[in-house]
Amino acid sequence: MFPAERPRRLRRTEALRRLVAETALAPDDLVAPLFVVEGLNEARPISSLPGQSQHSLDSLLDEVRALQAVGVGGVILFGVPSKKDEFGSGAYDHDGIAQIALRMLRDEFGDELVLMADLCLDEYTTHGHCGVVRSDGTVDNDATLQLYAQTAVAQAEAGAAVVAPSGMMDGQVGAIRSALDGAGFDETVILAYAAKFASGLYGPFRDAVQVEIADGGNRRSYQQDSRNRREAIREARADVAQGADIIMVKPAMTYLDIVADFRAALDVPLSAYHVSGEYAMVKAAAANGWIDAMAVAIEQLTAIRRAGADFVLTYFAREVAEELGR
Ligand code: PBG
Fold it and tell me: By CB neighbour count within 10 A (0-12 exposed, 13-18 middle, 19+ buried), where does 1 fall?
């Protein structure tokens, strides 16, 4: 008769395990980050992100077709311009690369999958910062907001259903919301990178978008400090108050406590970004034969869902969606 508690009873068969599973992971919970590079004629593999590429417009179209075929919920687009400048004008240029790509994808896919645009300046600035840099090297918050507002309108005009401000300037969500509303884009969704931490896990991404921060700089004066948990909730509340429709935590695995906090404290949809370094670590260990990449990817994405995220931005989107569909 002993023990009385027998949880193993419910683990006996795969059918029982499926029946009592508390967390589901489906292709439409996944969003694929994609990079489109101005002037590129064919896809160029990114060595620090095995399996991912910088895309030309043509290869981007093929990739989104493949993602749609396996039921991925959305894509988030990052543009890499052929020319950068001090104010990142390619980000808000009507004919900037991201806008050209968005128009192409909107014409092809309409609203069949969710088209998102990352909204930041770092890919477009010579100094690699996410905002306007003053002569003393510091980032000017409020001057940056005006450029974010212009970028949001350019992206919405080009067909983004969702804009995702990732620069961590104070007041960015409010500035973007009022610019969008003022330009007639009151239905454009804002997905706010509410808690984005200054992380060592963005390395491969910076290869993908060819960004190097000037003078060995970093983003610690605007991205959050990984020691702070209360502060993250404060940031998220501020974003929701300013009109964020969805909030995000980034990176994911090292911040699952923040994901759980947000789920408990706020009732807007919640996402998390399983970032480039998280993907690269799994791929690198698997390439050495040390772990099974697919098993670990599904375990990690499930953990992010279990912690409270409704969906996950991940470079694994295509592979995992293919696997889930088998
Ligand atoms: C900034 C931005 C970054 C990422 C997404 N948006 C990089 C940074 O803050 O330095 C990182 C994503 C990843 O590592 O996968 N535009």
Answer: exposed
